[in-house]
Design brief:
Elements lengths: L16 H4 L9 E3 H12 L5 E4 L6 H6 L3 H4 L4 E4 L3 H15 L3 E6 L2 H16 L3 E7 L2 H9 L33 E3 L4 H18 L3 E6 L6 E3 L1 H5 L12 H20 L3 E5 L1 H5 L3 H10 L5 E4 L13 E4 L8 H8 L3 E5 L20 E5 L3 E4 L2 E4 L11 H11 L33 H11 L5 E4 L18 E3 L10 H14 L6 E6 H7 L3 H6 L9 E6 L4 H6 L18 H4 L8 E6 L2 H8 L10 E7 L7 H9 L1
Parallel strand pairs: 2-3, 2-4, 4-5, 5-7, 6-7, 9-10, 9-12, 10-11, 12-13, 16-17, 16-18, 18-19, 19-21, 20-21
Antiparallel strand pairs: 1-8, 13-14, 14-15
Helix pairs in contact: 2-8, 5-6, 5-16, 10-14, 12-14
């Protein structure tokens, strides 16, 4: 923390009911920039209570300010992950679970490069992660202007007679982040840069960077921005007459097409949820009459599937079933909300909108009405309105009486039990048993996390209750994401004080890449009142790859001798106190363990190692491979 200053104290105003009930600390007129950054982050996301970090000599000064009484007063805590990759994954999941900004702090070079894969995941999957990188000091940077000074963590120049490039790593992240800023000793500029980075990350729901030289966090800056200009995430356009005019124009055009449709369909996709508009989507779906068919996308699953006009999951040829595909594609009006166009979400580009008279695609950056594109994101990167504002306006202006369509079908896809008893049931447990269990026992408000693995292809055949939150990284597809992501989501859910159940389905191949993050559940057990239930599918390798090519090749093998059910004890856990671990060898043991439908006490991590056959995959994968 910066030294005590002789200043005239300023008492910050309470910004919400919770803060108003607490006597605020006195904030000096000048504070260390490190403190300022943490306090500005707290303004940008008042729900954020966890900052993930890995220490390194270039970020230690910044981390020290995380222990300032001013920062502690906001309830913010620093949480280590086991490595930078896991930290980036955890921060991505934290942002999605808490529906807002998250933060990960690493050190220069070795730290930030280890995290870049996780940041690329967050960029692909729309995670609002602020990655702060501690860099060499301003003095060290200045030295290289006049002579060659090679320092640790910094790769030397190609030409040994030239000074190294201190920004070599910054250039590497331009394609996987929405904004990058470097701070210096100009404090007024620093304040503007910090706000610009935070605002851009929040609006874009994608990662951004702050590069902070290690001597800058201790420099003093004015606290006036914190007190007099509270952070606002809004763009310069939001709320203006121009923005409202375009919002009304596109809304009226969309509703006009809906009103004249005889067979309309609405598909909700993941970008609605990832841009914080789930509540507005729920309100819109509730207002629609039964004559409007509702579908969700594979990545979304954010429509209440208990509604009578919900039909199924549409992903082109990979849809819930042929009837679902036909009912969607034969509609004369298609409204796609938050559509995420990638082959894992559209059935390998087999989705077909060609039969519809009118198609509307609503993306956070644009709205496409047939061949006409309306740009929400302007040339300077600022947006006219948010996804939530659009859906709210659409719902407010929707007049049910003007919809001419009548209900043409009451069809609803109902997942079937795909388990077929066989002799292998005596020595392994097929994934279909997990599918059936989750279909029958998932609860409203559960938080389900599924890694990229063979099981993810069967998620479509799981019946979702209302308000279930699905978290995946299936588009970027970096296996092992889900273990540290579950840690990040668990931190967020605990920070919110929520009791919602957290359920992870993870494969053994992916888990071996990031398994050390299971130790974080043990390390932080004392502050986590709500811990996950983990289904670890042990099928001795990369099973989905075996189905693609090389079923018996060694490149699809792993060390299958891990004693998974003992892992948490190896990491320092105490069986029965910090966790419960079970090894389930076959169908009989699965039925005995889960026959009651219960998943155990959430105050302890529940770990279920499921022994599956090396070649067992969900039935949907078998059908896909047969069709291929």
């Amino acid at each position: 923390m910066a030294p005590v200053r002789e200043t005239t104290p300023i008492t910050p105003p309470a910004t919400n009911t919770e803060e108003a009930s607490i006597i605020p600390l006195v904030i000096p007129q000048n504070i260390a920039l490190g403190e300022y950054i943490f306090l500005r982050i707290a303004q940008a996301n008042s729900k954020l209570k966890t900052v993930f970090e890995i220490p390194g000599d270039f970020n230690l000064n910044l981390l020290e300010h995380g222990y300032s009484p001013l920062v502690a007063h906001k309830g913010i805590k620093l949480i280590n992950t086991c490595n930078e990759l896991n930290g980036a994954y955890a921060a991505d999941a934290y942002s999605k679970a808490i529906d807002g900004l998250s933060v990960f702090i690493s050190t220069y070079g070795v730290g930030e490069l280890s995290a870049i894969n996780g940041i690329a995941n967050a960029f692909t999957e729309y995670g609002a992660v602020l990655h702060i990188v501690g860099t060499p000091s301003l003095r060290q940077r200045e030295q290289t202007r006049s002579k060659i000074v090679n320092i640790h963590h910094l790769v030397p120049n190609h030409d040994p007679l030239c000074a190294p490039d201190h920004d070599v790593y910054k250039k590497m992240v331009e394609g996987v982040s929405c904004i990058q800023e470097s701070l210096d000793d100009n404090m007024s500029n620093n304040a503007a840069k910090i706000d610009r980075v935070l605002r851009t990350i929040i609006q874009e729901r994608r990662p951004g960077y702050l590069f902070i030289p290690c001597d800058v966090p201790d420099m003093l800056t004015s606290s006036s921005m914190l007190l007099e200009t509270p952070f606002s995430p809004l763009s310069q356009y939001q709320g203006t007459a121009y923005a409202q005019s375009m919002l009304n124009e596109v809304t009226d055009s969309i509703l006009s097409l809906l009103y004249q449709s005889n067979d309309p369909s609405v598909l909700a996709d993941c970008l609605v949820t990832r841009f914080g508009a789930q509540a507005e989507l729920d309100q819109f779906a509730q207002k629609l009459p039964e004559s409007v068919k509702l579908f969700s996308a594979n990545f979304g699953r954010n429509i209440d599937e208990t509604r009578s006009n919900f039909v199924g999951v549409y992903t082109g040829a990979g849809s819930s079933d042929l009837k679902v595909q036909q009912l969607f594609e034969n509609s004369d009006f298609l409204l796609l909300l938050g559509y995420y166009d990638t082959e894992m979400n559209n059935g390998g580009y087999s989705r077909d909108f060609s039969k519809a008279d009118n198609t509307v695609i609503v993306h956070p950056d644009y709205i496409q009405i047939n061949n006409s594109i309306h740009h929400i994101k302007q040339f300077n990167g600022e947006k006219l309105f948010s996804m939530g504002e659009f859906l709210h306006n659409l719902t407010e202006k929707l007049e049910i009486a003007q919809i001419s369509a009548t209900r043409s079908t009451t069809y609803k896809f109902i997942p079937q039990d795909n388990h077929v008893a066989s002799k292998t049931d005596n020595f392994c447990c097929p994934q279909s048993k997990i599918n059936k269990f989750l279909s029958n026992n998932l609860q409203s408000n559960d938080f389900l996390i599924v890694d990229t693995m063979s099981f993810c292809f069967g998620v479509m055949d799981i019946k979702f209750p209302s308000n279930l939150h699905l978290l995946s990284g299936w588009s970027y597809g970096s296996i092992g994401y889900a273990v540290p992501a579950t840690f990040g989501a668990t931190m967020a859910i605990n920070d919110l004080g929520s009791n919602q159940r957290i359920i992870l389905v993870q494969g053994d191949g992916g888990a071996q890449m990031t398994a050390q993050e299971f130790s974080s559940f043990i390390r932080y057990h004392h502050i986590l009142h709500n811990l996950p239930k983990v289904f670890l599918i042990n099928n001795d390798g990369y099973t989905i790859e075996r189905k693609i090519k090389g079923p018996t090749r060694s490149y699809n093998d792993i060390n299958g001798l891990w004693k998974w059910s003992k892992l948490l004890s190896v990491f320092g856990g105490v069986e029965g106190e910090t966790h419960n671990a079970f090894k389930i060898h076959n169908v009989q043991e699965f039925d005995e363990q889960f026959g009651s439908g219960k998943l155990g006490d959430s105050s302890k991590l529940q770990f279920y190692e499921i022994i599956a056959d090396k070649f067992d995959v969900p039935a949907r994968v078998e059908r896909m491979m047969s069709a291929k």
